[in-house]
Design a protein that fits this description.
single chain; 162 residues; alpha/beta; three-stranded parallel β-sheet; two-stranded antiparallel sheet; 52% helix; elongated
Length: 162
Amino acid sequence: LALIKKHLEKANPSDNIFFSIAQHQIFLGGYRKKDNRHALKSIITELILIANKKKLNFYLVNDTPRLSIDLPISICMRQIKELGFSDCDIPKNEALHKRQILTSLLDEISMDFGVSILDPFNIVCPDTICSPILDKKQIFIDQNHISTTISKEVADYLTSKT
């Protein structure tokens, strides 16, 4: 939090600030509990207030899909090459459901502060199945981190929305 605050303090008025938190961090951090969820909301609120004071354009960025199980990405890609699918694939509706706690928190904050939410989910998972490979391009480098190739597309999407 201190590093993010420091970055915000150094930003120039009208700079765009994109803030994202990984959905699995909510589960790992215990933010599903009401008090902890409230703590996370307080932290994000504090960042928004700093951004507003500095006249920064603050955007909440919802998380990208998290693949199904924790296999090495090399196994997932080999399965796709050999079988046409992998154990890492996840149905899009299931991936959306898994990040619902984060989505509802971001929606709540957006409504409270008028902050826009940007959602790159459909760029990373445009079909009914989220997979580590799309159109022969590697989308993920592991279960929840996207590749450089798709990161550039996400960055283009984010900047086009500002």
